[in-house]
């Protein structure tokens, strides 16, 4: 493989290298100017009340997903009460009716 015009390529590269510091110095000046303009200011973020509520709902939702959908100890307790016929007692029936009716 033969590379032609090696001198031209080297010359073009050297010209590009000499131009880059000028671009960088302009960029540095621009950055310095921006730093002066923003001196004393700080970034801040503000979350609306709706956003805070949405975040709280999301957290609780994630916690609820981690809980088991069926709690065996509660099922065992209900089954035991059914065997003992304790749901037929008057005070249990009144309490259940009250919850259903919203009393």
Structural class: mainly alpha
Count of β-strands: 0
Tell me the number of helical segments per DSSP (H or I, 4 or more residues long).
Answer: 4
> What spatial form do the alpha-carbon principal axes imply?
elongated
Radius of gyration of CA atoms, rounded to a whole number: 38 Å
Strand coverage percent: under 5%
Q: On the 0-100 scale, what is the average pLDDT?
A: 78
Largest sheet: none
> How helical, in percent, are the residues?
over 70%
* Spatial gap, N to C terminus: 95 Å
N-to-C order of helices and strands: HHHH
Runs with pLDDT <50, length 5+?
none
Task: Output the keywords.
103 residues, mainly alpha, elongated
Mind explaining what this structure looks like?
- The chain has helices at residues 6-37, 49-66, 72-83, 90-101.
- It is built from four helices and no strands.
- It has a domain at 70-103.
Secondary structure elements and pairings:
Elements: H1 6-37, H2 49-66, H3 72-83, H4 90-101
Brief overview, please?
The protein is mainly alpha-helical. The protein contains 4 helices and no strands.
